[in-house]
Amino acid sequence: MGNNLKEIRKKITSVQNTQKTTRAMKLVSTSKLKKAEEMARQSRLYAQKLNEVFDDLVSKLHSRGLDSINSKYFLKSKDKKIKVVDIIVITSDKGLCGGFNAVTIKEAMRLKAQYQAQGIQTRIRGVGKKGIAYFVFNNIEVMDKIVGLSASPDYEASSEFIYSVIDDFLNDKTDEVIILHNGFKNMLSQELKSRIVLPFDLDGYKKEMESTNLFIEPDDEEDRVLEDLAKKYFEYNMYYALIDSLAAEHSARMQAMDAATNNAGELVKSLTISYNKARQEAITTELVEINAGVEAMK
């Protein structure tokens, strides 16, 4: 009985130490989340303004006819056959964040299967250790293995990466580029985001603008401005996806550590009850043995 009590005591101490760790990790994730959330908010405002200017310019050029847009970034005809699709899969470098990475990986595998069923080749470009590890373990070829960027987004590094993808598109090595990540929705939830960044589908733009505040002088500079804006669009969409994913990661880890802390608390309660019962049984047994000894001496 004494050994049993020692074992339970050891378990209680072990779970309490784990609870302290998970509670500390929750506090760290909460602190990091606030910073990441603010960064994501500021980046989202910039991205929205950039997209507005970009959409205005494309719509303005589109109103003159598709021939007025001289850029390889734009899809002018639905007749172009897609043969190769690049999927940029953003996951975290660290674990202990619940199903955060599993959701993204599951969607990546679904997209891969969907395209393959249509006879389209898919190429995975991995950003984040967890996603890369999954694909490598399952013998799925990964073109790029970028580690460290999802944990610490850097504008220059993300731009360098996305330009390597754009080069493949311009050199006809790939026909479509998708950025896939689990994004931040609020403190308690995340949402999966999948976006085709290349090519731009002109069917999504209105042929005529009712009103626009966009004026470019001289007019012959519009193509150059469009190219520059397109590059900024690629750079910032990649960078924003990394920031958005990081904020969502901290949110998911905060929830996971909160759940782990609560579960540890429940387990401590359960073990404490078991300990008290075992201790009560030991005391009762000792009293019975004492009484039996006293009776035997009479």
UniProtKB/TrEMBL annotation:
Q: Which GO terms describe its molecular function?
A: ATP binding; proton-transporting ATP synthase activity, rotational mechanism
Q: What is its main location?
A: membrane
Gene3D superfamilies noted in UniProt: 3.40.1380.10, ATP synthase, gamma subunit, helix hairpin domain
Q: Topology relative to the membrane, per the entry?
A: Peripheral membrane protein
* Record's subcellular location: Cell membrane; Membrane
Keyword Signal listed? The answer is: no
Gene Ontology biological-process annotations:
proton motive force-driven plasma membrane ATP synthesis
Which InterPro entries does its entry note?
A: ATP_synth_F1_ATPase_gsu, ATP_synth_F1_gsu
Q: Which UniProt keywords apply?
A: ATP synthesis, Cell inner membrane, Cell membrane, CF(1), Hydrogen ion transport, Ion transport, Membrane, Transport
- Domain of life here? Bacteria
A GO cellular component annotated for this chain's UniProt record is: proton-transporting ATP synthase complex
Please verify whether the record's keywords include Transport.
Answer: yes
Q: What does this protein do?
A: Produces ATP from ADP in the presence of a proton gradient across the membrane. The gamma chain is believed to be important in regulating ATPase activity and the flow of protons through the CF(0) complex.
Q: What family is reported?
A: Belongs to the ATPase gamma chain family.
Subunit and interaction comment: F-type ATPases have 2 components, CF(1) - the catalytic core - and CF(0) - the membrane proton channel. CF(1) has five subunits: alpha(3), beta(3), gamma(1), delta(1), epsilon(1). CF(0) has three main subunits: a, b and c.
What name does this protein carry?
Answer: ATP synthase gamma chain
> Which gene name does the record give?
atpG
